[in-house]
Amino acid sequence: MGSKIAAQLVQQFGRQGSGIDFSYLRQGLNDVLSGTTPKMTDEEADLAIEQKRSADQAAVVAAASERDEAGAKFRGDYENGEGVQKTESGMLYTVMNSGAGDAMPTATDTVVVHYQGTLIDGTVFDSSYSRGEPATFPLSGIIPGWQEILQLMRAGDKWEVVIPPQLAYGERGAGASIGPNETLVFEIELLEIK
């Protein structure tokens, strides 16, 4: 039973992303169980925890700022590329292939697409190509950048699209792969409008 409790504690700390040093946790548990006086008072422990949280938050803010600056530089460089077009909102795109279709999706449509999403360093974070099947979703349920760009595409088009953070996942990021203030690069192929 003890190992189950320990496993639950480790999982709980992992979910909270606390970056806890488990050797100190083990020592604290041993101290409590053996009746040894803890190395810190409750007030000292609370202060140490708060300082750790503040340092972690400062690191997150600094990393987000670095991503924002790197993304702005990437978008500036990309914008000067051959054939690059820019929307009023600041998205950049290059037409890779023009489709034969005339239909363009509206905000209430559902689309079928093949796509690959990467960070500006080329790291792939999602790909329908890798899964071997296209994705289907309503325009109303996707990030603003996708909503906007898909309404400019025609069935059969394949574009490379650079989406600034405010039209992607912004300051919150998305999961472990997309940090706050990430500029995202997508290869999007509009296969069908439903």
What does this structure look like?
Strands 1, 2, 3, 4, 5, 6 and 7 form a seven-stranded antiparallel β-sheet that branches. With 194 residues, this protein is α+β, with helices and mostly antiparallel strands. The protein has helices at 2-16, 22-34, 42-79, 128-131, 144-150, and strands at residues 85-86, 92-97, 110-119, 124-127, 135-138, 158-163, 184-193. The mean pLDDT is 87.
* Fraction of residues in helix: 25-40%
Termini Cα gap:
53 Å
- Oligomerization state: single chain
How many distinct beta strands?
Answer: 7
Helix vs. strand class: alpha+beta
Number of helices: 5
- Shape annotation: elongated
The string of secondary-structure elements, in order, is HHHEEEEHEHEE
Strand content: 15-25%
Radius of gyration: 23 Å
Detail the poorly predicted runs: none
The residue-averaged pLDDT reads 87
Largest sheet: 7 strands, antiparallel
Defining traits:
194 residues, alpha+beta, seven-stranded antiparallel β-sheet, 5 helices, 22% strand, elongated
Describe how the helices and strands are arranged.
Layout: H1 2-16, H2 22-34, H3 42-79, E1 85-86, E2 92-97, E3 110-119, E4 124-127, H4 128-131, E5 135-138, H5 144-150, E6 158-163, E7 184-193
